[in-house]
Amino acid sequence: MKSGNPLAAAIVIALSTALVVFYAFLRPEQTVAIIIIYLATIIALSFIVYFISKMYGKLKTSIDAEDFAEITESLNTEIIVWCDDFSFVAMNTRIRDLLGITGSKYDEKEMLKKAFELPDLTDESFKKITETGSHEAHFLTNEDKLITIAWSTSVIKKRKKNCVYLSTGFNLTEIKNMQVNLDNANDFFNTAMDLAEIGVIMSTDRKKFIVSSIAMEALGLTTSSIDIGTLRTQIHPNDRIQFDRAVKSGDSYSSEVQNVELRIKSLNGSAYRWYSFRYKSIESTGNTLVLFGGALLDITQEHEKDILIERLAYIDEVTEIANRNKLMDIGQKTYECSQLLNYSYWIIVLDIDRFHIINDTCGYSNGNYILKNFAHILYKFVTPGGLAARISGDNFALVLRDYGDDELPIRTAKTIQDEFAKLAVDDFAAISLSCSAGFSKLPDDGNSFLDVMEHAEFALKSGDANNSSIYGYEPSMHDSIIGNTELEKALALAIEHNELQLYYQPKIDLKTGKIIGVEALIRWIKPDGTVIKPDSFVPIAESSHLIGKISEFVLNEGCRQNKLWQKMGYPNIVMSINFTSTDFYQNDLKDKVLDALAMSGLDPQWLEVELTETLALSDIDFAVAQMNKLRDLGVKLAMDDFGTGYSSLSYLQILPITLLKLDRSFITDIQHDNIAYEIVSAVIRIAKSKRIETIAEGIENTGQEDILRQAGCDYGQGYLYGKPMPASKLEEFFEKNAEVHY
Ligand code: C2E
Ligand code: MG
Ligand code: MG
What's 571's DSSP letter? Predict the structure, then answer.
């Protein structure tokens, strides 16, 4: 008897603890309530076992019913004292009520069998109870209610003939019901989660997580639980700190739902997917344990879309390095940082010498090959905190941290020149590949990053852009460069001698094949017949007052020519002219356009102005105001070279444009480059939704034309339909295509 007490108590405690752990594992959200009930019960049971054992220790040889009643009735649990030969069976009221015993006489054996849920009354059956010490029994009350009792049985008296046992019960009925309800609620909850494709993970100790079926699938688990260590290894190394922070927040209760985005891969080794992890910690009632849990929502698709848009906005398509947009963004931050921390940086602007010749002689794909490789060379020089970017066309920038070595920019530019020259092999063996550079220092050389960069560009232009020049910016350069270059003088004379002429390139309706307009592209025709393309002289004209004269000529001549064609009986078409930022930001822009229209008699609807994004965005408020003035006149507005500059689709909301020109770089590779295709079709779709028409530049073959037509592009322009040509040639073009066009 004396040894039976601690053993029984130990068994009760072990059993109860096992049950608590089991329930806590299964129902973490109910852990606290269950723990309280169990703890109370363990204490009560231990006390009962102790108390009854003590009392029975005092009994001598027999147990009388009155003594039994006196001892057990006051205890708040089911109690049976019985001899294994059934010479004595006593049950307290609690168990008798459950068994439906009303009077003092009852079939004791049958009731014992029912209470313990024994198949029969054999010694074997009882042995199971007495040897194991604890078992769970179920029986139905007279009202058909299913009762579950966990019995704990221990010897309280060993005699020669028989043994006396004490069985104390713990009524599990309510907990079982609670579990059924919870199971139903959980089924409902899990189904809802499954339908919403949301995975759920929960934990009370933040060491082991219970995982819903969708989360199991996502994590590649075969069981519904995972320890934090394994879960952590499935999270992308760069996102683990965020995850740790989220889990740590579970130490304390917070009513706020928090959100982090994590890359998680499945245990079956598939690639990382993006998840939005919405988590929260809940204070459990009456306990200090905090329930931490979160929902995992797969947002990979949204991320891919964002990446596409981000790519469009920040990555240069051809070279796959940062574009001007990213350079400006990071550059300005670097500028601010450099002021704050007393650091300095170099910005080197590089231009590939005679790139237009490479492009014209070797073709666009070879041109792109050169650009890519040039970018690759620059990339090798990027040090932490620095950046390589393609600013536009064949212009690149390299931002380098300055460590007090004033020779660094020159040395770097020279090494880049050497590396670049080495590319002149195979197809490029006949060409000498060189580049020129201008550099400046930030924050010393300007009031903003843009300012410093423009000064590096200024230094670049101050050299001979065709001959591997490297120049550092000096403020005194401003005085010497403007109005002094040979080219500028020659250009001034060319304007005087009417050597500038407009060429026209047709724009075609991709559905009907009809010509809907022409783009006026300026040419400098030297007296010896040499035709100079605008890329060679427009930038120079732009850095001086000459651009104003050129633009005035283009505007007036374009309007005059279009009106003349109308008078000649050719179909009404739109004349597009290109404006530089100097032209565009003139206060009298509207008056100049009005004058040109008035002088020519051209209706404004047949005039279109092409602007580049970079131009429009350098002072967005003023640009929008200028654009609205032109729109008010009835003039059309096109965004030129879309995709090369800032290219943020959000600008389409702000800028009052009527036509979007997709840059040639997208079109060139559209048949083979999936990303180019995806970007082009996304841009067309978005433009359509904003009622903006789209035109593709640089269509050179019918394959590109077909794809663009299918993608919903409205118009096309490119060598496939015609190269830029003088007015007389365009008239031939009209005649030749008369069948289609009239
Ligand atoms: P842009 O406005 O984007 O003009 C389109 C350029 O692409 C033209 O070069 C045109 O000849 C070329 N192009 C058109 N279709 C194809 C094609 O299928 N394949 C290829 N490889 N190229 C094609 P262009 O005439 O040399 O003009 C270059 C840039 O110079 C123009 O780009 C524009 O920004 C500027 N520009 C031209 N004329 C003027 C002007 O009158 N004023 C101003 N401010 N800029 C002008
Ligand atoms: Mg243009
Ligand atoms: Mg263009």
Answer: P
Give the predicted TM-score (pTM) of the model.
0.46
Q: Distance (Å, rounded) from C-alpha 727 to C-alpha 731?
A: 6
Q: Looking at the CA of residue 503, tell me the nearest atom of ligand 1.
A: 25
307-482: CATH topology is: Alpha-Beta Plaits (3.30.70)
| CB-based contacts of 21-29 (< 8 A; 24+ apart in sequence) | 23/175, 23/179, 24/204, 25/208, 25/210, 25/225, 27/179, 27/182, 28/202, 28/203, 28/204, 28/210, 28/291, 29/202, 29/284, 29/291
Atom of ligand 1 nearest to the CA of 667: 18
d(CA 149, CA 638): 82
What is the spatial distance between Cα 385 and Cα 344, in angstroms, rounded to a whole number?
11
List pLDDT tens digits, range 372-383.
Answer: 999 999 999 998
The SS3 of residue 637 is strand
User: Looking at ligand 1, which atom is closest to the CA of residue 521?
Assistant: 38
> Ligand 1 centroid to 508 CA: how many Å?
16
Residue 663, both tokens: 């840059």
Q: Reply yes or no on domain 491-737 having CATH 3.90.1510.10.
A: no
* Nearest alpha carbon, ligand 1 atom 37: 521
Q: Taking Cα atoms as reference points, which of 207, 296, 210, 201 lies closest to residue 251? A: 207
Return the half-sphere exposure (C-beta side, CA atoms, 13 A cut-off) of residue 581. 13
| Dihedral sign, Cα of residue 132, residue 133, residue 134, residue 135 | positive
In the chain, the largest separation of any two C-alpha atoms, in whole Å, equals 138
pLDDT of res. 269? 78
CA–CA separation, 500 and 554 (whole Å):
9
| Phi–psi pair at 697, nearest 5 degrees | -90, 150
Report yes or no: 693 and 658 within 8 Å, Cβ to Cβ: yes
Ligand 2 is an ion; residues with CB less than 5 A from it: 578, 610, 640
Distance CA 307, CA 311 (A): 6
Domain boundaries, the chain: 6-177, 185-298, 307-482, 491-737
| Chain segment 470-498, per-residue pLDDT in tens | 999 988 776 544 444 677 778 888 888 88
Contacts of 198 (CB under 8 A, 6+ apart): 212, 214, 295, 296, 297
Q: Which structure tokens are listed for 411?
A: 């040395």
Q: Does domain 6-177 have CATH number 3.30.450.20?
A: yes
Please state the length of the chain: 742
CATH class of 185-298: alpha beta
- Cβ of 643 closer than 6 Å to ligand 1, yes or no, is no
Distance CA 729, CA 718 (A): 16
Whether ligand 1 lies within 6 angstroms of the CB of 645 is answered as no
Residue nearest to atom 38 of ligand 1 (CA): 521
Location of structure tokens 């060319």: 494
Low-confidence ranges of the chain (pLDDT < 50): 1-5, 57-62, 286, 480-484, 741-742
Using the mean position of ligand 3's atoms as its centre, give its distance from the Cα of residue 673 in Å: 20
Determine the distance separating the centroid of ligand 3 and the alpha carbon of 688, expressed in angstroms: 20
Is ligand 1 within 6 A of the CB of residue 578? Answer: yes
Q: Do domains 185-298 and 307-482 have the same CATH topology?
A: no
Q: Best substitution site from 355, 360, 521, 580 to test ligand 1's pocket, by max atoms within 8 Å of Cβ?
A: 521
> With a 6 A CB cut-off, is 317 part of the ligand 1 pocket?
no
pLDDT the model gives residue 185: 63
